[in-house]
């Protein structure tokens, strides 16, 4: 076997393994969200995750991949690669197109899972399936094409989003915000005067395990984006990922101790995730010190963002926008400040950040790209839900919400209790 074939084989193994790590993050999303919501809605979380994986993978295969990575037209959209057919010769990698599809499929599943948390406990299951099709088949692929495909207009301008702070997290976060606004708050979340009522999480240990699984999967998310097992940046990417997550959690612990006089467990869980989101764009391009700073800022910003949403009577049960939308925005812009091209293999000098002699160019491009994908995600999500609502109600009925989606929609509780079955019989009797 020659060196080229050996290298290609190693790259294939690396990408498949990291894709599997990213897919395992769906278990993290499931546990995190199930722990944050009330017990009566845990099954509905699991069912939405299965929709993400099943419908998301199929729609991305039939439609999404072609729109995202197909032959470019005017920097806006792909026109080949549907069902992995047509002209894909422009994808010049050491791995096969099938391997590349698998890795990108794991990404698209993560995007829709972000929105899932923002509408937890009150979205109609049928409507969620339709929105999943819209996100994985249209909304995310087109935004991704602009940044990551050969010929995409933002990528051609020099935008850096190594593993998706903008394309995945900011876009997904602003989509989640639009969905939360459209569907409205849970019954009883806010008093008549606008004061938020506390809705206690059902199982914080479960949520913390979910966060740890997400943290583990993030090493595949970021390091796997090298698409090469022999890339010398893998170690540095893993280190910046770890440091940013640790800084996000640590800053959140200290900040909530000062602000609330107690370290707030849900905030701390989300603080570490915020650090991970923030470093995703620049993990290969920033120093260890910059990674710590980015993570710390994201951890604190997440707290303020959570409080801001509640002050505006916007109900986001798991903090999807605060974690992904806000931290993704910070991380995207941070690249324009802290990027050091010598840290990443095969990157030219044109990618220097403002603080390292690159001038305002990269920061300007990052800002343009961030605004573009965020607006795209927000408004197309709103439009999609508006159209879906004409077909099926986006929100469940009042009775279904009060009983809980597990019994009201799926007909089975997460934990077998006689009371749940009594309520199920009452609901079915109507």
What order do the SSEs take from the amino end to the carboxyl end, as H and E?
HHEEHHHHHHHHHHHHH
Output the structural class. mainly alpha
Q: How helix-rich are the residues, as a percent range?
A: 55-70%
Shape: globular
β-sheet strand percentage: under 5%
Which ranges are low-confidence, i.e. pLDDT below 50, for 5 or more consecutive residues? none
Given the structure, what is the number of helices?
A: 15
The strand order across the widest sheet is: 1-2
Instruction: Let me know the average pLDDT.
Output: 94
Report the sheet with the most strands, covering strand number, pairing sense and barrel closure: 2 strands, antiparallel
Number of strands: 2
Amino- and carboxy-terminal Cα gap: 69 Å
Radius of gyration: 21 Å
List keywords for this structure.
two-stranded antiparallel sheet; mainly alpha; 67% helix
Explain this structure to me?
The protein is mainly α. Helices cover 67% and strands 1% of the residues. It has 15 helices and two strands. The chain has a two-stranded antiparallel ribbon. Strand 1 and strand 2 form a beta hairpin. It is globular. It starts with a helix and ends with a helix. The relative contact order is 0.15.
């Amino acid at each position: 076997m020659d060196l080229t074939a050996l290298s290609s084989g190693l790259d294939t193994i690396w990408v498949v393994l990291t894709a599997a790590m990213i897919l395992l993050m769906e278990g993290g999303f499931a546990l995190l969200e199930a722990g944050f919501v009330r017990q009566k809605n845990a099954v509905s979380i699991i069912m939405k995750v299965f929709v993400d994986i099943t419908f998301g993978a199929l729609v991305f295969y039939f439609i999404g991949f072609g729109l995202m990575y197909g032959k470019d037209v005017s920097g806006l959209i792909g026109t080949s690669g549907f069902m992995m057919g047509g002209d894909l010769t422009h994808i010049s990698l050491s791995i096969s197109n099938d391997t590349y599809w698998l890795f990108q499929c794991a990404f698209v599943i993560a995007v829709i899972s972000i929105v899932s948390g923002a509408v937890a406990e009150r979205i109609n299951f049928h409507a969620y399936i339709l929105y999943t099709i819209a996100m994985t088949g249209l909304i995310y692929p087109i935004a991704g094409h602009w940044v990551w495909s050969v010929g995409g207009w933002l990528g051609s301008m020099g935008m850096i989003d190594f593993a998706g702070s903008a394309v995945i997290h900011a876009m997904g976060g602003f989509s989640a915000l639009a969905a939360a606004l459209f569907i409205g708050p849970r019954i009883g979340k806010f008093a008549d005067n606008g004061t938020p009522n506390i809705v206690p999480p059902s199982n914080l240990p479960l949520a913390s395990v979910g966060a740890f699984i997400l943290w583990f999967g993030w090493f595949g998310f970021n390091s796997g984006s090298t698409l090469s097992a022999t890339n010398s940046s893998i170690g540095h990417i893993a280190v910046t990922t770890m440091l940013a997550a640790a800084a996000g959690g640590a800053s959140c612990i200290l900040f909530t101790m000062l602000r609330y006089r107690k370290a707030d467990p849900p905030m701390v869980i989300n603080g570490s995730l915020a650090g991970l989101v923030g470093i995703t764009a620049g993990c290969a391009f920033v120093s260890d010190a910059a990674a710590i700073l980015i993570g710390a800022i994201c951890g604190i910003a997440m707290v303020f963002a959570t409080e801001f949403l509640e002050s505006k009577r916007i109900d986001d049960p798991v903090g999807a926008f605060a974690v992904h939308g806000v931290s993704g925005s910070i991380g995207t812009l941070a690249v324009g400040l802290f990027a050091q091209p010598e840290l990443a293999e095969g990157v030219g000098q044109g990618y220097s950040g403002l603080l390292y002699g690159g001038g305002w160019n990269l920061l300007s491009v990052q800002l343009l790209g961030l605004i573009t994908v965020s607006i795209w995600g927000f408004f197309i999500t709103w439009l999609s839900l508006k159209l879906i609502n004409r077909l099926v109600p986006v929100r469940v009925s009042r009775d279904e919400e009060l009983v809980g989606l597990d019994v009201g929609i799926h007909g089975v509780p997460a934990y077998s209790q006689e009371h749940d079955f009594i309520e199920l019989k009452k609901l079915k009797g109507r």
